[in-house]
Amino acid sequence: QVQLVESGGELVQAGGSLRLSCAASGRTFSSYAMAWFRQPPGKEREFVASISWRGTWTYYGDSVKGRFTISSDNAKNTVYLQMNRLKPEDTAVYYCAARDSGSYESPISYKYWGQGTQVTVSS
Questions:
Q1: Distance CA 119, CA 28 (A)
Q2: Among 15, 16, 57, 108, which has the highest number of CB atoms less than 10 A from its own CB?
């Protein structure tokens, strides 16, 4: 059984920072790429960032470039999303996901998903 468990979401003021964590368990993820997506209220799920499990490459959505950083700790089987200079439009449920093939930006490429963690940015 593969499990992805997100944590770290909370209410924060605009301009503040948060770090989300995604703990992976159940199998070896060395062949998987990991990603963060988010889903604002009433909107579709949006790509945020992706990283190869070994951290050799990263990709970011245009709306978060320069503010968010994705990283991984293989020893802990954990992926992080450091979010700086948060804006009210960053408010969403943030999901961690894992894939072994397909487009890094497309949710349908991802085989495993966490339950999500709520991030709320107040103005």
A1: 28
A2: 16
- Cβ contact 107:114 at 8 Å: no
* Residue 90 pLDDT class (50, 70, 90 cuts): very high
Gap between the Cα atoms of 31 and 37, Å rounded: 20
Alpha carbon distance 16, 90 (integer Å): 11
Distance CA 85, CA 104 (A): 24
65: its two tokens: 């470039």
Q: Which residues contact 65 (CB under 8 A, 6 or more apart)?
A: none
Close Cβ partners of 100 (under 8 Å, ≥ 6 residues apart):
31, 32, 33, 111
Task: Read off the pLDDT of residues 9-18 as tens digits, 9 standing for 90 and up.
Answer: 999 999 999 9
Considering just the CA atoms, what is the radius of gyration of the chain in Å? Answer: 13
Please give the residue that has the higher pLDDT: either 93 or 29.
Answer: 93
- CA-CA-CA-CA torsion for 37, 27, 76, 40, nearest 10 degrees? 10
> Rounded mean pLDDT of the chain?
93
The residue written with tokens 């200079």 in the block is 85
